[in-house]
């Protein structure tokens, strides 16, 4: 009988699998229920394998508000590998600014045309309609604490921005951040929803509200 060759799950494993799927369905059901905001931080869970660590709600709000002020009325904001700031920006009415998200994680494609697939290993592999120097401010959080990652992300940032840069990365990257982007460390200390081992800081190249 061919069925003899088909591996069978034990009753215990099957029950555990069914429980997992039920919990997953319940979570999705909560997300699609009335009142759920698809842009709220945590609506898409962190994927640590992609080096994703979401900001705390307070930090994301502070950075989003700073970006709006820096961009000015009618300004354009680009979030490069900074999805939790993008989500916080989308919670605002957005009448006085526009925003897009450049992100490797294709789960963020649920945000439609504002999502742009981005791989820092190919920093200038961008859509033709993403014109150079077309954003009033670029906020970026390179996924890895390495000079190579920062240098390649910096190429993207410099291509996109009209001038203003808001960079979030480790404190140990201060020298490299100044070297590749001409940014200086701020007094404001960003926090994450889960504590990270590495100290994080913000860097800017303009007079910001983060000092």
Automatic annotation (TrEMBL):
Pfam families: N6-adenineMlase (PF10237). The keyword Methyltransferase applies. Keywords: Cytoplasm, Methyltransferase, Transferase. It catalyses: L-lysyl-[protein] + 3 S-adenosyl-L-methionine = N(6),N(6),N(6)-trimethyl-L-lysyl-[protein] + 3 S-adenosyl-L-homocysteine + 3 H(+). The lineage of its organism: Eukaryota, Metazoa, Chordata, Craniata, Vertebrata. GO terms for cellular component: cytoplasm. It comes from the Eukaryota. One of its GO terms (biological process) is methylation. It is found in: Cytoplasm. It comes from Gavia stellata (Red-throated diver). Transmembrane segments: none annotated. This is N(6)-adenine-specific DNA methyltransferase 2. One of its GO terms (molecular function) is nucleic acid binding.
């Amino acid at each position: 009988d061919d069925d003899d060759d088909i591996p069978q799950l034990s009753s215990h494993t099957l029950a555990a699998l069914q429980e997992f799927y039920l919990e997953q369905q319940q979570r999705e059901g909560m997300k699609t229920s009335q009142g759920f905001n698809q842009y709220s931080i945590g609506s898409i869970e962190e994927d640590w394998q992609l080096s994703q660590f979401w900001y705390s709600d307070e930090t994301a709000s502070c950075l989003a508000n700073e970006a709006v002020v820096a961009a000015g009325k009618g300004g354009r904001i680009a979030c490069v590998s900074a999805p939790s700031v993008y989500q916080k920006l989308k919670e605002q009415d957005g009448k006085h600014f526009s925003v897009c998200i450049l992100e490797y994680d294709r789960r963020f494609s649920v945000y439609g045309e504002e999502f742009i697939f981005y791989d820092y290993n190919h920093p200038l592999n961008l859509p033709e309609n993403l014109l150079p120097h077309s954003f009033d401010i670029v906020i970026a959080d390179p996924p890895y604490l390495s000079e190579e990652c920062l240098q390649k992300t910096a190429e993207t940032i410099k291509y996109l921005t009209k001038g203003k840069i808001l960079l979030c990365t480790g404190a140990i990257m201060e020298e490299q951040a100044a070297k590749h982007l001409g940014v200086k460390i701020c007094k404001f200390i960003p926090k994450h929803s889960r504590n990270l081992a590495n100290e994080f800081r913000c860097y800017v190249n303009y007079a910001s509200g983060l000092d």
